[in-house]
């Protein structure tokens, strides 16, 4: 059963680690290292069953392979899960034990933050291994860099649909005014776009609208709000059978992970004549930031690389049009070509300084 699950998705290695003294139970999945060492965050989550944890880590690590390849990074895809309730289990001792587990993989897997693990946790993990990024001595908060990448992706989509990269006068609805949504709304407004913002936190929306030249829309009306670009920056699954018929936009391009409830919704958007920028392509700024931290580079360099997301997305949109397929399928093909054509690389990371 376990071998079947691993074979199905073509993983290279799945490692289980336990440490009875601290209660650590971790699974590290290395999906593909053709382009370089695998990189991906550690999710700390109270899964109902161990099968659920395995399924999650296999799915997430495979997604990281595509994300890194589609971002032109010299990295492969990996991910880790620590099984259990972080409120009860997360201790310095457990995180140190986890750091030793990561170190044991000798650089084939580099870890970072994810759901229920943060910068402080990575600093503890770093005591035991060099193969951890996303610490406070890294390149800082990735969210504005993610937003900058989404901005460049929106420009690429606008160029394709309206024949201009300029966002001046472009009507954009930003769903979710969190770390990324807020930075995106600001960058769009600063560049002359007509921005409408929405969040379930009404006080936050009101305070933001007081300080910026933006309109607001109630969260329940966000999908039917007429606009050029709908930018989902809150939660996953918001593009689904219920919302697609409501959408009054030409482009869906935002930071949220797993925007499509199901893969078939990429085709459904295409049938509606809506250009969809695949989430993992357009939101790669966060990954680019931690990759730069690991591979060596500056925050400015990360901003520059995030700005190149638009060019890559343009290439994928053109490819999709030529092949009469979805941009999602074109993005996957782009990533797979990079992996297939990879020169032989050292799959083991060199410890960061
Ligand atoms: P965040 O938690 O800072 O912000 C999310 C915001 O969405 C919050 O303000 C929340 O109130 C709001 N929200 C939640 N549900 C909502 C709903 N139904 N309608 C409207 N608003 C709602 O998160 P973030 O870091 O800004 O990330 C946003 C999305 O982008 C997430 O899906 C995240 O996985 C993805 N992402 C983030 C980064 C990054 O660098 N932070 C990188 C890649 C992908």
From TrEMBL:
GO terms for biological process: amino acid metabolic process. CDD domains: NAD_bind_Leu_Phe_Val_DH. Keywords: NAD, Oxidoreductase. Transmembrane segments: none annotated. The active site is at 79 (proton donor/acceptor). One of its GO terms (molecular function) is oxidoreductase activity, acting on the CH-NH2 group of donors, NAD or NADP as acceptor. InterPro entries: Aminoacid_DH-like_N_sf, Glu/Leu/Phe/Val/Trp_DH, Glu/Leu/Phe/Val/Trp_DH_C, Glu/Leu/Phe/Val/Trp_DH_dimer, Glu/Leu/Phe/Val_DH_AS, Glu/Phe/Leu/Val/Trp_DH_bac/arc, NAD(P)-bd_dom_sf. SMART domains: ELFV_dehydrog (SM00839). Residues 140-347 form the Glutamate/phenylalanine/leucine/valine/L-tryptophan dehydrogenase C-terminal domain. Belongs to the Glu/Leu/Phe/Val dehydrogenases family. Homohexamer. This is Leucine dehydrogenase.
């Amino acid at each position: 059963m376990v071998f079947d699950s691993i074979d199905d998705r073509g993983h290279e290695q799945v490692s289980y680690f336990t440490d009875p003294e601290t209660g650590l139970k971790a699974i590290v999945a290395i999906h593909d290292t053709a382009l370089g060492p695998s990189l991906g965050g550690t999710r700390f989550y109270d899964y109902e069953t161990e099968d659920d944890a395995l399924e999650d880590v296999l799915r997430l690590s495979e997604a990281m392979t595509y994300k890194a390849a589609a971002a032109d990074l010299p990295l492969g895809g990996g991910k880790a899960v620590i099984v259990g309730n972080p409120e009860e289990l997360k201790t310095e001792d457990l995180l140190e034990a986890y750091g030793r587990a990561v170190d044991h993989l000798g650089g084939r897997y580099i870890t970072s933050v994810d759901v229920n693990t943060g910068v402080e946790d990575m600093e503890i993990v770093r005591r035991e291994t060099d193969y951890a990024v996303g610490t406070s001595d890294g390149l800082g908060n990735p969210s504005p860099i993610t937003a900058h990448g989404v901005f460049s992706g929106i420009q690429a989509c606008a160029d394709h649909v309206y024949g201009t990269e300029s966002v001046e006068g472009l009507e954009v609805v930003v769903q979710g005014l969190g770390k990324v949504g807020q930075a995106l709304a600001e960058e769009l407004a600063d560049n002359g776009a007509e921005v409408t913002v929405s969040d379930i936190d009404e006080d936050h929306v009101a305070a933001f609208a007081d300080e910026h030249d933006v309109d607001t829309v109630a969260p329940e009306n966000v999908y039917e709000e007429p606009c050029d670009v709908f930018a989902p920056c809150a939660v996953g699954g918001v593009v689904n059978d219920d919302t697609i018929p409501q959408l009054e936009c030409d482009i869906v391009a935002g930071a949220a992970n797993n925007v499509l409830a199901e893969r078939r919704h990429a085709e459904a958007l295409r049938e509606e004549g809506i250009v969809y920028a695949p989430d993992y392509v357009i939101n790669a700024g966060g990954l680019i930031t931690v990759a730069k931290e690991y591979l060596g580079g500056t925050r400015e360099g990360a901003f520059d690389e995030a700005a190149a997301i638009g060019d890559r997305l343009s290439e994928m949109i053109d490819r999709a049009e030529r092949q009469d397929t979805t941009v999602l399928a074109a993005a996957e093909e782009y990533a797979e070509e990079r992996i297939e054509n990879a020169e032989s690389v050292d799959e083991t990371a060199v410890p960061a300084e």
